[in-house]
Amino acid sequence: MLEEYTGNYCEFLKMRKICHAKNDWGSIKWRGASMPHPLRQDSSSCGVIVTMMAKAVMEAFPALSLMSFGTSKKEMANARTKFGLGLLSGSVFDMDNHCAMCSASKPPGSGPTTTDG
User: Fold this and answer.
1) Are the C-beta atoms of residues 69 and 35 closer than 8 Å to each other?
2) pLDDT the model gives residue 111
3) pLDDT tens, residue by residue, 11-67
4) Domain boundaries, the chain
5) Is 104 helix (H, G, I), strand (E, B) or coil?
6) How far apart are alpha carbons 71 and 18 in whole angstroms?
7) Which of 19, 26, 29, 46 has its CA 20 to 30 Å from the CA of residue 90?
8) Is the pTM value of this prediction over 0.85?
9) Dihedral (C-alpha) 89, 91, 92, 95: value to the nearest 10 degrees?
10) Is the dihedral of CA 98, 78, 73, 50 positive or negative?
11) What are phi and psi of 6, to 5 degrees?
12) CA angle, 38 then 9 then 71, to 5°
């Protein structure tokens, strides 16, 4: 399966070189590697674990990451909360001045902003 992804990525880099004249990563000889990582303990934490693994890899890059995080139900719930709060704190949504349904500064059907008369 890894070979399939690697092949697809190599094809993408070839296309990028041909279509956009960008060869910044196309000439690198990519190698696969295995990194030990914690295993999930339930059937619903794959996304959280993959996100935590990606974060660990990015923080350690270019070295291989030593992934050491807990995967208990409580630790996964805490990680979900932390990720959610991080996303919300980075949001530009302003509840006082924007529609909660569509984020528009003027909710649909709210009428004109000025009155004639």
Assistant:
1) no
2) 59
3) 777 777 777 777 766 666 767 777 888 888 888 888 899 998 998 988 888 888 888
4) 1-27, 38-89
5) coil
6) 43
7) 46
8) no
9) -80
10) positive
11) -60, -45
12) 10
